[in-house]
Structure formats: structure tokens, C-alpha cells
Amino acid sequence: MAIFKRMSLKQGNTSRTNAAELSLRASIYPLCLVTVLFFLWGFSYGLLDTLNKHFQVSLGINRARSAGLQAAYFGAYPLASLGHANWILRHYGFKPVFIWGLCLYGVGALVAWPCILHRSFGGFCAAIFIIGNGLGSLETAANPYITICGPPRYAELRINISQAFNGVGTVIAPVLGSYVFFKNTASGADATQSLTNVQWVYLAIACFVFALAIVFYFSPIPEITDADMAFQAEETHAGTDDVSFWKQYRLFHAAFAQFCYTGAQVAIAGYFINYVTETRPNTSASLGAQFLAGAQGAFAMGRFTGVGIMKFVKPRWVFLIYLTGCIIFIAPAITQRGNTGMAMLYITLFFESICFPTIVALGMRGLGKYSKRGSGFIVGGVCGGAIVPPILGAVADMHNSTAIAMSVPLGFFIAAWSYALCVNLVDYYRIPADKLGAAKIGIKNSGNDEEGVRGEPEKVGIEHTESGSEEIKEVGKM
């Protein structure tokens, strides 16, 4: 029983721990464990994009109704990020939210089994809603945890690397779909067999996530408290938590940008197969799923490329360039057809890659003691994925053209662009981002101080005094 006592999930939130000053080496294990979660929801999200078209074929529903999958999935996010998951996060800590989210994910996957067996689209949407609550809970904890676990100056790099494994999951899921879901999509017995294959996939997911929840329970994950985040903000003079939470206007603009951006991203991916089967001659749904896997590969490549660029260029500038690329390349996809139109979507997905995680990291800059609460609002912006796809589906049905409906995500990209401009050009946004981007916490002094902001600065850490007490001191160049 002693091991269960040591694994207590109850954590304080007002006392400081050394987690605020974790070095790169000390943060590797918890970061690797949490990164597994990014693959999970990338895989789940990729399955959803594939099933969107699959249910249109197997169940004979139109494009607007099939968007119910995205509406159920992403509509659950604000319920988790602003409700139950955020409450658990603020009162108990990160580990309980990880376990809670995995259990909800597993329950939703099990509920999906009988719904698929009885060909109930409404029932499957309900199962997806439960899964969305689970994944929304995981994102509520995982995104801020990756951002704040380790030296603050590398926050954008860490979250983009972790999110790159999300991209790997979105590549694998459409490939699986092309060979399993779309293997036999004719009527009758073949369609029933195809749906049976889907239910086995969800059973395997349930078994895996329940096992992973057990791993998280027994894993020593450093807890990062509100007091830790307040210390970081105060130490770097980047804090804005001296005003009330409801006056954190940068946070709410970031949440708005997340709503618009995520809605556009989900709409494009959700109707990608529709787009290529309509605009490219002799393209089946199975081939379209393989093309979607290629597009998600471009998405994953964009994340790894973006991380490399961020080593030399401020993340806020990379974010502006990438989001601008989304706007530039989605526009021709509205009018172009065939391979040209599909290529435009490939490039759009490449530039989408770093936007979501970078909005999270930049939006949380300087929130201090409000970090956990604020992360719920930014992740809650993911509910844009429940709003924009049905709009795109309705426009596509109205004009009988998915290509024309791509004007919908274009408009939402432009709305999200307002945040990218502000975080680069407005001092109120830019200064907190840059101060934490130059933070010295958790980084050892390499003796190379001439590099300024991008160099290896002095270390802020805990120094033991002669009396045996601990003091926070700044060591290095004054």
C-alpha cells in the first residue's frame, strides 16, 4: 500500500517547487511521456477526417450532416477546457487530468463499439463527444505542461516538437483508413464489414489508453504550481498577473485566434477527401485518403521545419510567416482544380503546422499565476473545429462544390491573422513574449554571453546557504 500513498494525486497549488527551474535534462522524461498523448489525439483527429467521408459513403449521409463528427468532437473541448478538466487542473494538478482524460477517451472508444455495430451515426457522434471530452482534458493539461516544463525560452520549440508527433498520428490514421475503412465501401455486406473494421480499431484504442493511464499513475511527473509560474513571471519581469484575470486581453485575443485558426484547419482536413474526389479526375475515396495522408505528412514536415527555424528566428515572426502562408495558398485552392488545387492544399497544411502550438505558447506568456486558468481558454478555442466545418459543409452542399466552400476557412485564417500581427507589432503583446523568450531560468551558463538574447545566459537556481536554507539567486553576469 505504500506505493499508492506515494502516488497520491492530491497536489498543492500555492507552494513553490523546483519544477519552476527544471533544466533540459531533468525535463526529458516527463516531456517524452506527455508527448505520447500528442500522438494519440493526432491519431484520433486523423481518424475523424477519414471517417467523415467514410460515413458519407457507407451510411448515405450528406456533407453537412457528416460534419456532425467534427461538431461532436470539438464541441466537447470547451466543456473540458473551461469546465471539468480545468477545475481538476487548478485544484489537483496535471497528473490527475492526464489520467482523467485517458479514462474518458477509453470509455468513449468502448461506447463507439455498439454504435458502429448498429450503424447508428447519432450514437457514434455521442461516443465521439465522450472521446472529445477526454482529448479536450488531455489538451487542457498537456499543452500548458509542455510549454512550462523546462526552460521558458524554449517553450515554443518544445511544444512544436511534441505537436510534431501529433502530425505523425494524423499521417498514420488516413493510411489506416485507406486500407481498412475504404477497402470495401459498396453497399450491403461489404459496407457492414468495413464498419466492423472500424469498431476493432476503437477497441484497440480503448485497451491502449487504459494501459497508458496506469503508466501515468505510477510515473513521477513533476507538478508545476501557480506559485511556480508566478515566480517565473516575476523573475523575468514579464508578468502581467498584477491585474485581474479578466483584464488579460492578450490571452483572450489568443483564444479568439485559436478559435478561428483551429476551425479553418479542421474544416480543410475534414473535407480534404471530398475536395480531391470532386476536383481531381479518377480519384476514389480510398485514393483520396492516401492523398490526405500525404497532406498530413506535409503538415508534420512543416512542424519539424518550423522548430529548426525557431532556433534562429523569434517564434512570433515564424508564426506570422506561416499563418500568412496559409492565407496565400488556400486562396488559389478555391478556383484551381486537379493536381494544382490539391498542391495548394498540401502547401496550406505545411504552413498550418506550427500555428496551433505557437498560439498556445505565445498566449500563455506572462500569465504567471493565471497560467492554468488561462490555458483553458486557449484550448477552449479549439471549439472552432465544431463551428467552421458545418459551415463549410453547408456552403459545399449549397453550391455543390467543396472547392468554392474553401472560401470559408480563408475568412477564418484572415481573422486569426490579427493576433499574429499584434504579437509582432504591438508592444503590449510583444514585450512579454520577448522577455520570457530570453529567460535565464533552467539554463546553465556556457560562458558565451556575447550572443545576447539567443545566447546561453546565466542560470537562476537554488543556492544553499551556510545555514542550510534555500535562497533563489541569480548566478553569472550582472
TrEMBL record:
GO-annotated cellular components: plasma membrane
Membrane topology qualifier: Multi-pass membrane protein
Pfam families: MFS_1
Transmembrane segments: 26-47, 67-85, 97-114, 120-138, 159-180, 200-219, 251-273, 285-305, 317-335, 341-364, 376-396, 402-426
InterPro entries on file: MFS (IPR011701), MFS_trans_sf (IPR036259), MFS_TsgA-like (IPR050375)
Region of interest: Disordered: 447-478
UniProt entry tagged with the keyword Transmembrane: yes
GO MF term set: transmembrane transporter activity
Cellular location(s): Cell inner membrane
Basic and acidic residues composition-biased segments: 451-478
Alphabetically ordered keywords of this record: Cell membrane, Membrane, Transmembrane, Transmembrane helix
Protein name per Swiss-Prot or TrEMBL: Major facilitator superfamily (MFS) profile domain-containing protein
The species this protein was found in: Friedmanniomyces simplex
Lineage, highest ranks first: Eukaryota, Fungi, Dikarya, Ascomycota, Pezizomycotina
